[in-house]
Amino acid sequence: MPDIPASQSTTEHEVPTAGAGDAQMQAVPVEVPVAEASAIRRFLLSRGNSAIADRGFHWLMVLCALSIFGIVILIAYELVQRSQLAWAKFGLGFFFSAFTDPDTHQPIYWDPVNGHFSALPFLYGTVLSSFLALLFAVPLAIGTAVFLTEMCPQRLRGPLAFLTELLAAIPSVIYGLWAVFVLVPILREHVNPFLVKSLGWTTLFNDDNPTGLGYMSAGVILAVMILPIISSLTREVMSAVPGSQREAVLALGATRWEMIRIAVLRNARIGIVGAVILGLGRALGETMAVTMVIGNSTDLPGLLKNHSLLANGSSMASVIANQFSEASDDLHLSALMEIGLALFIVTIIVNALARLLVWMVTRGAPAQRN
Amino acid sequence: MDGVATGLAILSTLLVVVPLIAIFIYLIIKGASSLSINFFTQIPKPVGEDGGGMANAIVGSGILLGIGSLIGIPIGIAGGIFLAEFGRGGKLANAIRFTADVLNGVPSIVMGIAIYSLIVVPTHHFSGYSGGVALGIMMIPTVCRTTEEMLLMVPHSVREAALALGVPNWRSVLSITLKTASPGVITGCMLAFARVAGETAPLIFTAFGNSNWTVNPNEAIAALPLQIYVYALSPYDEWHKLAWAGSLVLIVLIVAAVSLVRYVTSRGVLKGAS
């Protein structure tokens, strides 16, 4: 029991030896010939009361644990401090409005040379690419989780689960490399022309971007990256559904799919939503792969004129990665810091929400692992 | 309906597995063909010259990860010990657990700019130290939460036995409880290590990268993921090949770490860590 103060346990040990006198003390070594026992005894006699050491250890652990608080507060403090300049100049409008050019009456969003900054294009890029990623990833992740927990032969389960977990271990920059040299050419040569041809009438797909980079590519690679986390968490909440629920539904004559729909998916739905939100948190902050394929344009295509999903853009994380090291003046740096701060706050909220939901479901039923 | 659902589930599993296999095949084909002994022994050469390698980036990554582990592992384990042994069920422990989860979700790029303003700005130069600190901080939550989980799996009777022998509490925690849980704790450390080994975003503004040979952590230092990023976006074929080779080396290291962990834990005393 960690709560027992060590001084108490040492006194418990000392009381019989002190009270019983020398005769018993001498008898002990004869009766206990084991070497370890005597080593512990010698150690104890050399230490005496360890209350101070214990208290010191306790406080050291508390200090290390508290340093986690410290780190989060320090990060928040630095970001707030360094973004003061942009905050003072643009206020909340930084995220919503744009500077209008007096000559051409065109909105200007990001103009480091003249000191006009607005995060709107990057907000749009982050939201759009994450939304596309969820659109692709969620059905696939749930399908995979259903297959692995409910249908898969026992022999395949381990290796397949391991494979999907391996996806999570691949560094973001390698996804980016693969996307640049394999995924983007495939999208450019085969998928995008098809989309333009068959779905061009929705005005969501314009073929005015010959590079293949853009929101769509970013969304696809993000989907590949957040699949493992959504699918493994979904698997976890699905395994937390008691077997008796499944049996009850099957006993009523349901087919396997009806059983999965009624017993498993319905019971696990809150947890699945939590897993999806957690995946969203990952997608919002993902940097390297997105930076490599989103095209890095700081323009907002203009929601009314051109909202093509194939256009070049930037996300909040990618604009920081791209421009931070070349930002020379303080306002530019400060604007990038403010984007970082916004990203920090949004991911905290999203993660907290997701943890809460996952915790609500898995609480009580310890998740079975493979 | 039943058949359709089964088909869809199998199809989605295939769609998930295919990219993974595709990535690995490409890495092996493209990476292995441009991998040579020079890759491990030479530093990058200017554009146009043949050959060149990433020796400085491999060593630099090692230094950065070393600094990161020195910071992240002790603090993470200590935090885990607090959560499991001292603060169990308390309000403070819950708050710290939650904060660790929050820290885990902070995007790595945000960590990068925070460390930039915390260390690089006051010292006026990019350094290996700042990169190491960024990686170390990113390791803390993973190490902390795994340590806690593993310590909670150690039966109470083990602690009670140690204390009944009169062992001081700190000694009991370190050499009895933590030692019993050590396979799981090591797993957590390895997973955290594997995770930050591929991190690029926090290094762009801290370690910065360096095309010369350096082992001084007080200077800008090269790192494998950083080098891959720079080479992948360059317009030169020669550099693209090096990027593939670097990715292969990086992924082999990471997969080896993860598989080792899985192998050890699957036959260790404490299962269920990965």
Short note summarizing the structure:
Chain A is mainly alpha-helical and 370 residues long. Chain A has 14 helices and four strands. Chain B has twelve helices and no strands.
Question: Which helices and strands occur, and which strands form pairs?
Answer:
The complex is a heterodimer of chains A (370) and B (274).
Chain A: H1 6-20, H2 22-31, H3 35-47, H4 51-82, H5 84-90, E1 99-100, E2 107-108, E3 110-111, E4 116-117, H6 120-151, H7 154-169, H8 172-199, H9 215-239, H10 243-251, H11 256-285, H12 288-293, H13 316-323, H14 330-362
Antiparallel strand pairs in A: 1-2, 3-4
Chain B: H1 2-34, H2 37-41, H3 55-86, H4 91-105, H5 108-123, H6 128-152, H7 156-164, H8 169-180, H9 182-197, H10 201-204, H11 224-232, H12 237-267
Helix pairs in contact in B: 1-12, 3-6, 3-9, 3-11, 4-6, 5-6, 6-9, 7-8, 9-12, 11-12
List keywords for this structure.
heterodimer, A: 370 residues, mainly alpha, MetI-like fold, 2 domains, two-stranded antiparallel ribbon, two-stranded antiparallel sheet, 4 strands, 71% helix, flat, disordered N terminus, disordered C terminus, B: 274 residues, globular
Description:
The complex is a heterodimer of chains A (370) and B (274). In chain A, 45% of the residues are buried. In chain A, α10 runs antiparallel to α11 (256-285). Helices cover 71% and strands 2% of the residues of chain A. In chain A, β1 and β2 form a beta hairpin. With 370 residues, chain A is mostly helical. Chain A folds into 2 domains: 1-49, no CATH class; 84-362, MetI-like fold (Orthogonal Bundle). In chain A, the strands form 2 sheets. A two-stranded antiparallel ribbon of chain A has the order 1-2. In chain A, strands 3-4 form a two-stranded antiparallel sheet. Chain B has a single domain (35-267), classed as MetI-like fold (Orthogonal Bundle), CATH 1.10.3720. Chain B has 12 helices and no strands. In chain B, α11 (224-232) runs antiparallel to α12 (237-267). Residues 269-274 of chain B have low confidence and may be disordered. Chains A and B meet through α1, α3, α4, α6 and α7 of A and α1, α3, α4, α5 and α6 of B.
